[in-house]
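Tutorial handout. Part one gives the primary structure; part two gives the three-dimensional structure as tokens.
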Amino acid sequence: MSVQEAPVAVDHRPAGDAPSTVAGPSAPTLWRRYRVVLLVVVLVLLAAIAMGVARSRAAQGRLDPLSVDPEGGRALATLLGDRGVRVDRVTDPTTLATGLSPTTAVLVPIPGLLDESAARALGDASRGSLVLLDPPRNVLESLTADIRPSSVTSIRVRSAGCDEGAAVAAGDVLIGGTTYSSGDGTRCYGDGDAAPMVVGTTRGGARLAVLGTGTMLTNSRLDEDGNAALGLNLLGGDGSADELRWLVPDPGRAANRGSTPSILPDWVLPAALQLLLAGLLVALWRGRRLGPPVVEPLPVVVRAAEAVEGRSRLYRRAQARDRAADALRSGALARMVPRLGIDSSGGGEPSPEAVAAAVASRSGRSDADVHAVLFGPPPVDDAGLVALADSLDSIVRDTLDPEVPHQ
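Part two.
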């Protein structure tokens, strides 16, 4: 029995020409697969670079006596110099407490720069005066046993509210930030038991002033309200000191490396952790995604007869006699219709009746028999499917070569 199956796209190259390996994913495919992960990595790197630049700029420019940036301290250093106070820019924290005299003042705008030994040395000082801006708890514990951080308040213009000479002479100033509690010290600019400015003494007996923020001492805010007066009075501009040791960060010093995290803003570490968590979530999400189906060349050559047999086995396993019958009838019609010369004036496919009449005329069979074989209902069992295949084969032979006698 010869049956014409529906057209199947098959590679007809000789077996020796078949590709031996399957091609790997192309560059565009890799880009589509990993572009989200790459984007997250780039964003994390850019965020890290931005944080590093911000940290470097903040550490080098924030209240530096040489900095003219809005957050710098050049204006305050100039005013102190005009009043006879020599400003020494110090980058080594271990030298701050060396040779302190009663007329020496020390300003530490970034207390996180102080390591344990430097903070302990300042705490043991018995002469001079110290001014610290927003010091952390561990530094305060090394300096004094009386002052401790309490809470955080808004930065705004406040009145002194105390009898400290420097605060009374300055009047209203822009202050706030961290507040501090103290048993024996003088609390200024606050309400209740905690205040953003406390004046007390170190463990050794030196004068100690702690401020919750240094915003009022920056170039951009020094000329507002009594900010300049407060800075000058605390740092010796009132005649109480002739030398000011001003600590600034030196990133190259090994002593500063252990306290580097204290220099960073509080939001840096949580932001970095959130970026890392987001990157991991995106990696897990993209890693579980299989992606869209892709078309790949077959690694082997499939013969046409094997493809037909394989499809037939699938039809048989699924009991799809109707699909098998349609395939057999479609193959037969594909061979016969082009050679029947049926007029299709409408431009579409010829009607079943016209095809049945033309085939009956060529094969010598009745129209009803031909129509039943070509367009009838599907067979109900395997025997009927085999009979249909035999009938189609006979009609095709009679139609295409009517001179050949029937077997």
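Part three, for discussion. The mean pLDDT is 81. The CA atoms of residues 75 and 219 lie 6 Å apart.
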